[in-house]
Amino acid sequence: MSRVITVAVAGQPNCGKSTMFNAITGAAARVGNYPGITVERLEGTYRFNDRDIKLIDLPGTYSLTSYSPEEIVARNVIIDERPDVVIDMVDASSLERSLYLAVQLLEMGVPTVVGLNMMDEVRRKGIRIDSKKLAEALGAAVVECVARIGVGKHELMQAAVQLAERAGGAWKPLVFSYGHDLDPVISEMVRRIEAAGFMTDLYPSRWIAVKYLEDDESVIKQGDQFGPLSQELKAMVEVVRRHTEKTLNTYPEALIADYRYGFINSILRRGIFKRTQGLRLDASDQIDRVVTHRVMGPVLMLVVLWLMFYITFHVGSYPQGLMEKGFGLLGGLVGSVIGPGMLQSLLVKGVVDGVGAVLSFTPLILIMFAMLVFLEDLGYMARIAYMLDRVFRVFGLHGASAMPFIMSGGIPGGCAVPGVMCSRTLRSPRERLATIFTAPFMVCGAKTTAYIILTAAFFPRYPSLVMLSLVILAWAVALITARLLRWTVIKGPSTPFVMELPPYRLPTFRGVAIHTWDRVRQFVSKAGTLIFGISVIMWALMSFPQLSPDIAAKFDHERQQLTQQVEALGKGGQPSESGVKEGFEERIQQLDARRDEIALRHSIAGRIGSALEPISRLAGFPWQVNIALIGAFAAKEVFVSTMATAYSMNATAAEENFSLSERLASDPAYTLPVILSLYVFILFYAPCIATLMIIVRESSWSWAVFVLLGSVGFAFALSVSVYQVGSFMLG
Amino acid sequence: MITLVVHTDASPYGLHSTYKKTPLKEPETMVKPLRRMKVNQIGRVMAVNAYGELGRRIRDMGLVPGTDVMVVGRAPLKDPVAIRLKGFTMTLRNSEADHIIVETEN
């Protein structure tokens, strides 16, 4: 008897759909991913009078055409999973536009409950809505809600259960006139569709006809495979298209939209919807006079962007530091419990460091997303895109590309992991791919550590100037590369900017918390496992094969002799000999460093680095740099310690006392062209593994591979030119 | 300057229009692309000459013939433009606003 009722929750963006979904399901929603898009698929349950109701959150869409992946996904869920009821949340304060989606749902015939959200705002604005009459006119259930405070959630569920029982699985499509130009042809198409049984198991026949008139790619593609009637229908559409173009200077798709709005208007005019003035400015428009003002706007935006950056990386550095320290301690503990050897190395350098690498990002992601979700729910992200679009469009990007760039290190010290993750706010696919490709060019915090060491070695007198030049170079190259990409690989017209400037609304703590938590959990469970896996592989590359037993034995023997000498001195205990003792200890350290260097060179990574030397010499890099660059692919901050090992120096001390800087500065191999070439290569050569895995999550494996190969090739070409031109000019 | 020939029977609320230019002594209304509207100016959409994805996105937002719009602002670099219609605010680039023909009072 008590069958589970499935309810899909649809709605236009900014209508409060997620808020209502969270209010109904609580925080216990199950998060998945819709295939092919980065929108989470949320599922939750609700219990209503002993009935279990399963709720599916559909992506927010303005309509159910098939231009964006979100729209196709929303439509497919309704068609393939055939929910018992669809709840369509609408922003009642802009009812006319909001009902556009509701009408399309009703045209499909799925039993629909319309949730009139923001009823508090509606009353405050003096708008009057007669929801009973609206329900009659639409043939749908209508429930008044205020999602922000949970008003109406119980009533929505009640209406959904009642409607599901009443409909009993039957779909009754809403039918209204599309005017005397289209109605006759629609009738004829419906007749033929029904006669041929053309996809009628899947869709209502009139809906199929309308989709053909709307030139709906996905339905037509499906129809082409289904049967020959598809060609006939297309021919009929072509005839009517020519007719409307000649007589009305328009085309069927536009006419259909006009008549849908016409239908909505005719309903609303029947005393259902009364407002004082449609064009009256909202409080939000008044706020925007300041917030997007010619002078004040950009100033405020810079402050907000800087604050967001500052809070993420400066406040985030405390938990991040603690996390790193904790993993350092854990590594030490594991190291002391398990004696030196392969197992210790695997656990400390492979597992603990790998997990540490994943988890040390989480505080950053948590803080960044909390603020990002807050700004987005507030409505400010749309204003940033609005103000910056003119600038970014020049480079084939979108106004919303600014945030990923800045987070990735557009202000030095960022991190491309949260940077690439926040490209989610970009709804334009081509612009988004270009942003994902170029954002990792920015000067992230880990690159900064490498630059500090290099700059201390080569340009000790101008650290600030060097950093500033690097930041400018990063921005310039990122933007130019984006432009080039948009002219070649991701060619195509810019995605329409057309978007809503949603009214400013104070986000709920609950909403921000739920979204942020989802993102962090996804990062740890999805990207985290990949990052961990590849960290272990990188460890293996840098540890195997091990030194041959006789070489290892030689080192062991030498070390033992030295230790015995130290111990012998210790027994004597004469204070005057302490200097001699230190000398021995230094020799032990040197021996260990020498052993590490030989082991590194002997490893797979080391052999690759050495083997690449003939090629890397084109850009001026010796094998030590090659190995460090391979190591830095695991995480950019590894560059310094790997360089130190490759130069037979104590790896941990290098970052603290600039001994590596001194060593490099005194090395004649590092001429100015080599140094400049190295600076350029580090900046652009490849996103680190963590970023790359995020790119996989945010786009696809193939795009991630393209980003990797593309940026390595691009950086190498750039470095070779810098080195060759530099060498030529300096003679 | 311009008179309007409006096919009021084309849709429930009229205004699928074609217009032709003939001189008038005292122009009361002006027909022009939305891009040329000034901030705070009010107009009514006469035609949307955009096809494909752009056309669909514009219609999805309710910017169809017969709709009253008001320009509420421009971005600091004068582009995009923000407009108010049907109780909400939206924004589009000037190049996109070129496809939208409006009638404004003088």
How would you characterize the overall build of this protein?
Chain A is α/β, with parallel strands linked by helices and 731 residues long. Among the domains of chain A are: 5-167, 3-Layer(aba) Sandwich (Rossmann fold), CATH 3.40.50; 183-274, Helix Hairpins (Orthogonal Bundle), CATH 1.10.287. Helices cover 66% and strands 7% of the residues of chain A. Chain A has a 7-stranded mixed sheet with strand order 2-3-4-1-5-6-8, with helices on both faces. In chain A, strands 7-9 form a two-stranded antiparallel sheet. Chain A is elongated and about 105 Å long. The N and C termini of chain A lie far apart (89 Å). The model of chain A has no long low-confidence stretch (mean pLDDT 86). Chain B has 106 residues and is mostly beta strands. Chain B has one domain (28-105): Ferrous iron transport protein A (FeoA) (SH3 type barrels, Roll). Helix content of chain B is 12%, strand content 44%. Chain B has 2 helices and 8 strands, in the order E-E-E-E-H-E-E-E-H-E. Chain B has helices spanning 52-60, 94-97; strands at 2-7, 16-21, 29-33, 42-48, 68-74, 81-85, 88-92, 100-105. Chain B has a 6-stranded antiparallel sheet. Chain B is globular, with a radius of gyration of 14 Å. Residues 1-20 of chain B have low confidence and may be disordered. The chains are: A alpha/beta (731), B mainly beta (106). At the A-B interface, helix 3, helix 11, helix 12, helix 16 and strand 10 of A face strand 4, helix 1, strand 5, strand 6 and strand 7 of B.
